[in-house]
What does this fold into?
Amino acid sequence: MIFGSRSGSGMSSGRENVVSMNRFRKGGTLSPLRQAEAYWTALRRGDEIYVEHENGEREWYDLAADPFQLENGYDSLPADVQAELAAALAALKECTGAACWAG
It folds into this structure.
């Protein structure tokens, strides 16, 4: 699942699992600090979640070991795993259509 889509409503065909953050960016009822925090995208695979923030910060959590996401384990990941997660998230950001969600 990917969160934080920047394009349109985020609900185009085949992208039902994309949650648009645009409603948070347009003011809504959130404080300016909370609006700034809305600029992120995340990829969940099994019991792990990978987050990219627009400021360049990266996060990774093992949800089985850390279900409350208290310890960011991104820096302890091997470089090839960091690159794999970034590539997978980048591919999903640009993907459209039902083929994107095929196993």
